[in-house]
Amino acid sequence: MGPVDHAFTLHRFPAGALPGGKPGPDPLFYSNSDLERALSRIRWQEGVRCTLSGAAFGALEANGADSAPYIERLMNGGALTLLEDARAPDGAYITLILSGGEDVHFDFFLADGGNEVREVRPGRGEQLYRLTYPDDTVKTSAIMREWYSALAAAQGMDPAGGE
User: Fold this and answer.
1) Chain segment 29-41, per-residue pLDDT in tens
2) Which pTM does this prediction carry?
3) Fewer C-beta neighbours within 10 Å, C or N terminus of the chain?
4) What is the pLDDT of residues 97-119, one digit of tens each?
5) Tally of domains in the chain
6) CATH number of the domain that 121 lies in?
């Protein structure tokens, strides 16, 4: 079996597509991967919060900085490829954790300007993906570093001391 590819693009839902008539993405994302559903929920579903956690600042709730630009950059034009039988990269990563008892988190690896993302379901295993973009200068590691640094700055921490 070869790699499974998922391509997705950020869209907007028509009014009424989400509870309470809130605008959101439209149509639903093409692959409906767990990562894309999580990012979509954080971006568009009212009341969904997330935490970014890394070695530099620990766990930071994404309520101190606007997450939308970072989520949109992660999702806009990206292609998600399952890396079967691949080993996760060594080194630091930033973990994205959804609020509300979701039994999944995502580790975004930072080494070498990487695009690797590990989906972890405690007690049920993990999958490693690569998230790539038509513009090969876009790196998930850079986006996650920026988002994490923005959260730290919003909470009065010095982002220059971060990862």
Assistant:
1) 445 678 888 888 8
2) 0.78
3) N
4) 987 767 889 999 998 778 999 99
5) 1
6) 3.30.1490
